[in-house]
Amino acid sequence: MDVPAQLTPEAANQLREGIDLLLGRWSALQMAILNEWGGRDTRPKAQQLSVNVYQWLIKPSEGLYVDELEDLLDDFMLSLNTEIDDGSIEEIAENLMIMHEECLVGNFASIGRLRQSVPTSNQQIQVVKGDEDDSDSASSSGDESMENADEDGLDAAPVAEPNVDADGWTVVSSRKNRGGRR
What we know:
Pfam families: WGG. InterPro entries: Pre-rRNA_process_TSR2. Belongs to the TSR2 family. By secondary structure, the chain is an alpha+beta fold. The chain is built from 7 helices and 4 strands. The protein has a domain at 9-116. It has helices at 9-24, 27-34, 42-57, 66-79, 88-104, 109-116, 156-159; strands at residues 82-84, 124-129, 163-164, 170-172.
């Protein structure tokens, strides 16, 4: 089956909406926006990410590679001082690529499912906010993994209280973030 090289106007609109829906459900991104980890302009930056992803997906006559999209997403999250170590970047990039391919052939079912459903994933994600100038932190590294504290013989409750959002994702923040802003 030949896949068209360009999106129809309807498919382009559907893709744009799908990108917004998918990024709007990405818990790591939503936590970065909510906590303004990228500064006071984190929300406009996130809106620009949606535009950048759309433009990347519709670039003409170039091959689209999922690892390049992963790099785009990872670089963006790092610009928000947020390091993702859980595989969600790969999952988001893969879903965006699939959505784009479906839109090329006029299949908008996955976007329709995004509109109508609430994700029920119990997948746990690890979000680590980098803050290089915080020298009085209890942890020795800004990217210290805390996703399996029980394996180290520690009780998980004192290390980090997991927050389950409306989408069913669990976000565990860095020890540096505990205690609020100064």
